[in-house]
């Protein structure tokens, strides 16, 4: 069982719930356990990647910890790929999908135990536009929602900002006539999601067979673009029954080229990230991720 001593935490001070009490309680427990803890704050989007790379190169930490939401974790992971030091998380975001994948609850004792003694697993990654992702890439409805989030509303109401942006995207018409090539086969859909693990947008099971510890991406193609169809999709997602819907095509994929409509919004690991055209593919590199002891996907 590893016993880690030196922790370098990269903290996004504006992430979601800004649970500073949780962060402080985790740091306190680490220090009580005899660990040395340094905390560095991000100053802008993308900064966590630079900070993580530099911290890994300095070589003083046994683990680099991303404290924030899934977007911050994604940025830290990008800085650590190919470096020996593992990544761990303190989930402080709005949705915290990776924490849900790891069955990690927002409890200081659980998080501190994981950081001190949790094993480091190799986790498969995906690539989007040449950059890694850990959880999902959404094209169409969720991309539009994430791009439309009002930062002030997000600060005030967290998930409420997503609900409001979702209602607006639904009212405008959620269909997007997407044309894509999945492993050489041309397909069409109104909404598309590529998922690396099991969960989507929170504790909602999209891919029942999804396993973040194994390489492999699943493509979900939602074929109907109507408002009622979207409600049906979201209810099925809430119940973990998307796979039962006759108008959703699900296939394992190695590479998907999303071609049209040009300019359609893309979200990656819960953050706005550009627009179509975009290529999503199976990554060839693995990330060393600290997981709770006894965790099994
Ligand atoms: N100091 C900063 N100022 C402004 N933006 C930042 C800063 N540090 C990081 N960011 C950006 O904040 C965005 C949101 O962060 P993050 O995803 O961690 O939180 P969240 O959106 O609340 O959580 P979740 O993804 O779990 O919903 C990221 O895209 C990141 O690039």
Automatic annotation (TrEMBL):
Keywords: ATP-binding, Kinase, Nucleotide-binding, Transferase. Gene3D superfamilies: 2.60.200.40, Probable inorganic polyphosphate/atp-NAD kinase, domain 1 (3.40.50.10330). Residues 2-132 form the DAGKc domain. It comes from the Bacteria. Coiled coil: none annotated. The keyword Transferase applies. The keyword ATP-binding applies. GO terms for molecular function: ATP binding; kinase activity. This is Diacylglycerol kinase family lipid kinase.
């Amino acid at each position: 069982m590893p016993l880690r001593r030196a922790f370098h935490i990269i903290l996004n001070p504006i992430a979601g719930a800004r649970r500073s009490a949780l962060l402080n309680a985790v740091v306190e427990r680490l220090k009580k356990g005899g660990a040395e803890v340094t905390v560095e704050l991000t100053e802008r989007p993308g900064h966590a990647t630079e900070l993580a790379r530099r911290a890994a190169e300095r070589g003083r930490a046994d683990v680099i910890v991303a404290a924030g939401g899934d977007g911050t974790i994604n940025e830290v992971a990008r800085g650590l790929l190919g470096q020996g030091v593992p990544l761990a998380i303190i989930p402080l975001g709005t949705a915290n999908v990776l924490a849900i994948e790891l069955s990690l609850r927002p409890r200081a004792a659980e998080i501190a135990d994981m950081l001190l003694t949790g094993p480091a697993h190799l986790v498969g990654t995906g690539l989007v536009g040449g950059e890694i992702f850990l959880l999902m890439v959404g094209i169409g409805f969720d991309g539009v929602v994430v791009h439309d989030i009002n930062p002030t509303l997000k600060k005030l109401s967290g998930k409420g900002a997503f609900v409001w942006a979702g209602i607006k995207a639904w009212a405008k018409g959620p269909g997007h006539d997407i044309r894509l090539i999945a492993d050489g086969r041309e397909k069409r859909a109104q909404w598309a999601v590529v998922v690396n693990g099991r969960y989507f947008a929170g504790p909602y099971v999209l891919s029942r067979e999804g396993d973040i510890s194994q390489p492999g991406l699943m493509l979900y193609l939602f074929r109907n673009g109507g408002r009622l169809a979207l409600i049906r999709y979201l209810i099925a997602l809430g119940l973990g029954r998307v796979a039962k819907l006759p108008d959703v095509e699900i296939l394992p994929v190695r590479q998907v080229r999303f071609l049209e409509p040009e300019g359609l919004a893309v979200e990656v690991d819960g953050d706005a990230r550009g627009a179509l055209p975009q290529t999503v593919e199976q990554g060839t590199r693995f990330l060393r991720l600290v997981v709770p002891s006894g965790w099994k996907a």
